[in-house]
Design goal:
- By secondary structure, the chain is α/β, with parallel strands linked by helices.
- It has helices spanning about 10-20, 35-45, 60-70, 95-120, 140-165, 185, 200-210, 220-230, 235-250, and strands at about 1-5, 25-30, 50, 75-80, 125-130, 170-175, 180, 195, 215.
- It has a single domain (about 1-250), classed as Rossmann fold, CATH 3.40.50.720.
- Helix 1 (about 10-20) crosses helix 7 (about 200-210), helix 3 (about 60-70) runs parallel beside helix 4 and helix 4 (about 95-120) runs parallel beside helix 5 (about 140-165).
């Protein structure tokens, strides 16, 4: 069995690489930093291929897919993504467009291309990493929240299409709350709630994906909060999210652009 993991050099993606290699999977790992990818390859051992690519560049996304063609990929893990903090009119337009390219466009392209391949042989797993933010609006992180809404709704729609067609392909979308990774550093914020570990999120997601379950929401507190949010008026919920996000702002910080 072989998996492609995007954003594999840190956080949940890196943890997933370890979890899958422990299960005897072969891996193709991609990220922007080739040096880090090479180090990770040495750490993992086993059968690991790497391809350095910046998924903000659409041509690089297609290059990653071409690299994987004919290699028998059984599982696609769309993990690459990042956030941006600040009022919508204050954040960098270029940084936001890059974020949309990584969080949405790259996920869309790889999901579509691998889904076509998987459906032809009637097997395969797609695991899209979204966020609990994918069920909410997100003042002060508006574009990030919107991008994760896209990933959640796209995944849910594809799942229904697969169910209707009786396909052997499955799709899972991981929607964690705060995770202890470099995400918040990159987004330019600080945690306002105790995060789960990347290892916990990765293990939870992989188990749900192997079980063919659509939604993977780790943690009872986040599950309860998302359930309760269905019954809260939109305006009140948006106001509550604003307060949560505002509490994350580092002292004296302006709108952040932390793409590394």
């Amino acid at each position: 069995m072989k998996a492609l993991i995007t954003g594999a050099t840190s956080g949940i993606g890196k943890s997933m690489a370890y979890k899958l290699i422990e299960r005897g999977w072969e891996l193709i790992l991609t990220g922007r930093n080739e040096e880090v990818l090479n180090s990770l390859k040495e750490e993992l051992g086993g059968s690991v291929e790497i391809i350095a690519a910046d998924l903000a560049d659409r041509s690089e996304v297609f290059r990653v897919y071409s690299f994987c063609e004919g290699k028998g990929v059984d599982m696609l893990v769309n993990n690459a993504g990042y956030g941006l903090f600040g009022a919508f009119d204050e954040t960098s337009l270029d940084a936001e467009l890059d974020m949309i390219s990584v969080n949405i466009t790259a996920v869309h392209i790889l999901t579509k291309l691998f889904l076509r391949d998987f459906k032809k042989r009637n097997s395969g797993i797609i695991l899209n990493v979204a966020s609990s933010a994918g069920f909410l609006t997100g003042p002060l992180m508006s574009t990030y929240y919107a991008s994760k809404n896209y990933v959640v709704r796209l995944s849910m729609a594809i799942a229904e299409e697969l169910r209707r067609s009786g396909s052997g392909v499955s799709i899972t979308v991981l929607c964690p709350g705060p995770v202890d990774t470099s995400f918040n550093d990159r987004a330019g914020v600080t945690f306002s709630a105790k995060p789960i570990t990347a290892d916990y999120a990765a293990e939870y997601a992989i188990r749900k994906a192997f079980a063919g379950q659509l939604l993977a929401v780790p943690g009872l507190a986040i599950q309860a909060a998302l359930f309760a949010s269905r019954f809260v008026p939109h305006r009140l919920l948006s106001a509550a999210v604003y307060e949560i996000q505002h509490a994350k702002r580092p002292s004296g910080a302006a709108a952040s652009d932390r793409r590394k």
